[in-house]
Amino acid sequence: MLFLIWELLLLLNSAAIGFAERVELFWDIGRLNISRDGYNTWDSICVNNAVPIPPVHVTQGDVLVLNVRNSLDVPTAVHAHGIYHNYTDYYDGAEMVTECGIPPGENFTYIIDTTTQAGDLWIHGHVHSQLTDGFRTPFIIHEKVKPTTYDKDEVLYFEDWNERTFEDMVAIDAKLKLANIPPLYRTMLINGVNANTSKSLHFEPRKRYRLRIMSLSTSSWIKFRMPGHTMHVISKDGVEAVPMEVDGLDLGPGQRVSIIVTAHDTAEFNYMYNVTLYANFIPLYPGLMPRHYSGLIEYQKNAPLANIPAVDDAQLVWNDVINMQARDRMPLLPVDRQIVLSIKQFIPEHGIPYYSFGDYAFNHSLVPILFTALSMGELASNSSVYGPQAQAHILQYGESIELLVYNDNSKDHSLHLHRGEYQVVEVGPYGDAVANNHTAVEFQKSGPSPMRCDVVTVRAYSYIKLRFHVNRGMVALFHCHMMHGGYFGLAATFIAAPELLQKYVKVPEEAIRMCKLQGIKTSGNAAGNQGFDMTGLPPPILVNRE
User: Fold this and answer.
1) What's the pTM?
2) Counting Cβ atoms within 10 Å, is residue 364 exposed (0-12), middle (13-18) or buried (19+)?
3) Nearest to 438 by CA among 463, 462, 464
4) Backbone phi, then psi, for 454, in 5-degree steps?
């Protein structure tokens, strides 16, 4: 019966794609020497020889056909962050997890179906540090029916920006750390340009505005406020929420919210919005960390600015996800199985730490994890065939999983689940925050309909509980979206119902060709061998040295 149900759903989905509107884009990915922050000039990643990359807008039910040419000198891959990809895992864009990536000089087409979702998503590179180097843009799926009434719809997205490529920054940071010199600091872009020269928000009296506030940052957190205005959060990471009134937004890398703001009755005054760029792992330095920016909310040209008294952050109400409720009132999931993940850190002699959710840092296999799941038959349900570097967990169809994540670490981490979202059900203290000069996280539980999202912050010296239901076969990466975490091993993989993957996933020949061009095997275990023979697989990086 289970297979019959899925076959029916797949047929219906195929029929829906057949009648859907096709939105076709052509992206030539390269580099462009340009100054984006007003200070430094270097080779930013661009699309069609232009930056910023234009935001992508579609309507729910459309099929986005993204034709990509790789004009870089290294492989690339495109991740539509937040898309479910029902049995089209090979379009998820996670290099060496669900695909091999696109080699230099080659073309590949991603087909992204939006039948079952809408909201604030984004598209970014998923190879090495290409996200940090500018390969990122909003991806908005407009609802066919608005979740609430509003007059205008605006996107406001924030990026932290380095003065060099991420690899260069890491190398320099390592040398500075060994010399006990403060690290390099990031600046901010607003809607793709220098935050100090960004355009004003134009408000008209009594109009209702939907503002899609998006943190496309890679290593920094964003605080956003509109003093003198009331904000109501109506969605988080594309999931509709029971409206929640807040004074400010605090967003980690990859997090997005939509808010409703009603303009004042008159155009007597203009106002300012305030943005703070911060990261708890970068030392405080006046004018550099945190960095403060502001932009104009313009009701009328040359109108005076309203005098709004300053308020300490501690007195404000923020968009804490544990206090939010899902609009569809989906109840708290039961727990069939708990998976415990502990964030570990190891600092080798070169000074840049590795991270892990277990004993070993995540690293690429010699065969994409999806292809191992598809080719290993019954052994695909044994986590050993994926190798220790994959940090693989096998999930069963129909079970509800609770992730218990411990962070006995001085850094906040922004955790992202590919291919779906989880309920945020509990947070609390873990380790000795006060002794390590941090504020202890308060114990809190969610309400009866926990908010769901695909990125959540686990604060330093705290734990968090997340729940999700396994409703299909999939290979899903779970990783830190802060580059200093994810780039250095803070990731795990969930292989859900591999028997269903083997039944329903048909990898396109073009995806296979991308692998062959790079000499990457498309079958076998993590080493490309049969059974549990890992000959040829590089040794994993041991992080947990307790």
Assistant:
1) 0.93
2) middle
3) 462
4) -110, -5
Burial of 14 (0-12, 13-18, 19+ CB in 10 A): exposed
Q: Which of 440, 391, 437, 409 is nearest to 343 (CA)?
A: 409
Amino acid at 177: K
pLDDT tens string, the chain, 546 residues long: the values are 333 333 444 444 444 444 579 999 999 999 999 999 888 888 999 999 999 999 999 999 999 999 999 999 999 999 999 999 999 999 999 999 999 999 999 999 999 999 999 999 999 999 988 999 999 999 999 999 999 999 999 999 999 998 788 878 777 777 766 555 555 677 899 999 999 888 999 999 999 999 999 999 998 999 999 999 999 999 999 999 999 999 999 999 999 999 999 999 999 999 999 999 998 878 788 888 899 999 999 999 999 999 999 999 999 999 999 999 999 999 999 999 999 999 998 887 666 788 999 999 999 999 999 999 999 999 999 999 999 999 999 999 999 999 999 999 889 999 999 999 999 999 999 988 888 888 889 999 999 999 999 999 999 999 999 999 999 999 999 999 998 788 889 999 999 999 999 999 999 999 999 999 999 999 999 999 999 999 999 999 998 766
